Amino acid sequence: MSIELIQPYWLLSLLPFALYWWWLRYRQRSKVSPIPVAQVEIWKRLSTPTEVRTKLLPLCIGFFLILLSAGPRVVPLPENEIGWSRDFNGFIHLDVKTPPQGPLSLLDTGSPVNATYVSSASGAVTISFLELPPETLLNLKGSNNSLELKVPPRPDPIRVFQLGEQPGVNEVLTALEEQNWITRVDAAQRYTAEVEIGPARSVRNRHVGFVSDGPEVWLPSMRAAKLDDPLLRGLQPEQWTISSSYQTATGTPILTGSKGEALVTRTADGFLWGFSPTGGDLSERSDWPLLLTRMLIELGEASRSRIDSQTWAGLHLPFLFTSILLVLLPVLLGSGSNWSAAVLFIALLGSLTQHEYRLPEKTSQTSSYVLWAKSLPAGSVIQIPRQEVAPPPEFFEALKTRGMGWKFSGQQTPQWSLSKNSCRPGEVIHIVHLQDSDVSGWTQKNPRGSISPLTLPLTPEFSGLWTIIDSQGVEAPLLVLPSFPVSIAEKTSDGLSQLFEEPTFKSSTISLPTPPLGGLYAWQGQELSSERIEEIDRWVRSGGILFASVGSPGCEDEETRNSLSNILGVNLPEPPPEGDLDMGLLLIDLSGSLLGSAATTLLESTLILLESGDGNTRWGLAGFRDELSWILEPGTSITSNTLEKIPELIRSGGGTHLGKAIRKVLPVLKNHSGQRRVVLITDGKTTPDRWSDLGKDLALAEVELEVLLVGKKTDTSVVSQLTRASGGRWQKAANPKEAQEILKTLLEENPAGWKKTTSPLIQDLSSVFLSGYTDPVGIPYQSLTPDSTARIGTAELVWTDAQRRPLLTLQRVELGLAVTWWSGLDPLRLGSSGPRIKARLRELLVSALERNSTSLRQGALTQSASGKRVFMLERRPGDGLEMEQGFDSSTLSDQSLLLSAEPGSTMFKGEIPDHILDPVIYQQSPIDSERSFVVSESSLENLALMKWVDLPPKGKQAMGFQPHSFLLFLAAIILISSPVRQRSGLGREQR
User: Fold this and answer.
1) CA–CA distances in Å: residue 330 to residues 3, 338, 522, 973
2) How far apart are CA 688 and CA 591, in angstroms?
3) DSSP code string of 835-861
4) Using an 8 Å Cβ cutoff, are 32 and 988 in contact?
5) Which of 23, 107, 277, 651 stands 20 to 30 A from 303 (CA)?
6) pLDDT class for 307, splitting at 50, 70, 90?
7) What's the pLDDT score for residue 51?
8) CB-based contacts of 700: which residues, under 8 Å, 6+ apart?
9) In the prediction, which pLDDT does 988 show?
10) β pairing state of 628-636 and 617-624
11) Residue 295: closest CA among 327, 329, 254
12) Are 381 and 406 in contact (CB under 8 A)?
């Protein structure tokens, strides 16, 4: 604790106050000429002497009021030796600035705690371990001494009241309650709720309200209103499709439409949604519940007092003592104190109003900011220009410890804006509200500080903070986030390579991503060496994510299966029994009659069938016009490279001679010992032939014939004769979706090791991996789960079908995750729900990667109280208390800066030496050798979006209650003046 005075110059009034009191006493004595009278002298000797204490009481109270006018308050000092923090993944982190000496061990009732230790060069240590019950007594033991600590209590769950039944929201709240994030209250306890959810007109206090009237926006294109808003971290609102929305009339936009219409806003009392969270395709997405969850957490934290009653009293000493004096004055001094009490009452009433102050103009000495903040009463709100360079960190620390708030002043209304404020490398960014496409005179500044002319389309190549500058000098920031590094097992799999598409992921097959946090390793049946498996095990335990698709192709190596089973927490299945490889020949009609949508369906159907990749069929692909031509030789193993070349090789035109094509492929099939199949994709129009005889030849050769007629105008006469004679079948598809439904039936209903899944998909809503996601997703057509009870070991069931067969399982491995997908990734294994399933898997993995991502940290360049430049860097869970940061300048290169953090804080700070000119701070990308830079001082508007800076929230933090100093001084003057002076014996009346 420390004592400080808000307005110390009022102490100077003590001298004139004392002189005034002395003058009053001297003036009274000079007016009275005492005459010796015997009776009076005798009376003096007999009477009790007047107590000096009574005479000096008004003077003492007056002195005390002047002391209160200086605004004394007790400010809590931060605890600098020990700090605690918790993260989303269930870990608790302990920072100890001065730990015991020697090798450290953490004990709980004598038993070692499984923990990781990060030591700093200064001797400080950060310890991370899984959550323990609150108040657990821990012993941090060194070789010579020890330190006893207690696990701090968890924050209480947020009390939430839901008004009405908003579709989808109830399921999210149920999931959050199961995870002990919130506690739901009923209508009888509504007054105890910290957050309310419901229609915007009906909710009160802090709330998430849904707007249901006002200007309507149809088919809005969603985009983030601000650069890297923490509420939207890891989400992709640009991909949301909303059929209609109402514009929100109040608040700061979070999500807007393409024309800038506010669709989701932050207000002083909460958040407003202009659309239903399950409208449009949101019912098929799993990221909007995370946005709602973050809103609830933010509102819950803001609704609770950040200071306890003792601290609050220390910040409001003048108000408390003035209130006490107002009650005691009539008791101590009688009715003669009425005038003074009235002035004190006015002073208290005046303190109830919220005080707003505008940030003073920047001076050469930044320390004036901090000194100025110390001169303001608690409850003050500071107006800071929106684009002003951020004040020093000490300024915001002074606001936080003294119970003050801040808000922006002024508004920014740009003539144009970017379609997205954050993206991944390689994404196309559009400029909206631009009158024409002429961008001559526009420039772009990349994260390295280089400026070049702007060319459209805008596709930033690497991560970091980009700046777009128009011809008038107006700037717009663009934060390019690094892609998540994904390493695919040595033999690339088509399904995996398609699952991790750019630009969200950057895949390779070289090595495991470094560092593990924020990286993913994908495996699909490849044989791995024992050294590689040990490396993967260590990598996952250090924070990596292992994603294993145990569908086709199955892993034939028993040692690989057994070793990975320990990491995944499941028993991996054996591959199907070996046998003769099946031969499949795909004949596609390339005649000129297949045009438009029919040609598209033919191409899509071809790729879908070849992508099935069940591992037991080798394919040949031939196109026929007047003659047959091989596109893929018979028996070809299909890979991603093979599929990429197919669209270039398919060209339509010419006549159609189906009979000649079948006769040419028939000898190839007869020479094969396994199962033989011909899949024919055509519109049915061909030259005449002896179709019954040709069909009998296929039947004698034991060749299965499957015919798929594509297009809206087809001829069934030929294929009817052909399939009737061969024992085959024909089906018709007007579009690729219908074709996919038909082609998936070409798979066996129950091949070895596979089972057809049963609807619906069941999700474990309490799973941390899902994070409250509730959207009903389609189920795969088949899953590799013949015996569900024998397959699951210690892993958590995240998705199952109606018969409780596992579809997605999760195993936590220390800091990392091991995820198992129990189906194939090819379209025919997934069925019609394939695109939605893949999208959901990507979303879940992105969310998990975001939580512990080692992507480029956010940084900000501000100034210290002494005027020096200070670089602040985001600190993440598990980091130590110190970090080395590289930087360049115009005079030096490849320098390092030591950054340090206070225990329990969320940011590193370090002063840049004065001799370093034009510092350029960089961070090495975890993916490649590209460097991303922070090149300029940060504006407060951008700094406010960085939650790790720990700025106090906008608005009132504690009630002001600072009586006006002048009124306290006036009340003190009245106390020593008439009539209180006369009744207290300060002077004598003249007769």
Assistant:
1) 30, 7, 80, 17
2) 15
3) HHHHHHHHHHHHHHHHHT--SPPPEEE
4) yes
5) 277
6) low
7) 44
8) none
9) 42
10) antiparallel
11) 254
12) yes
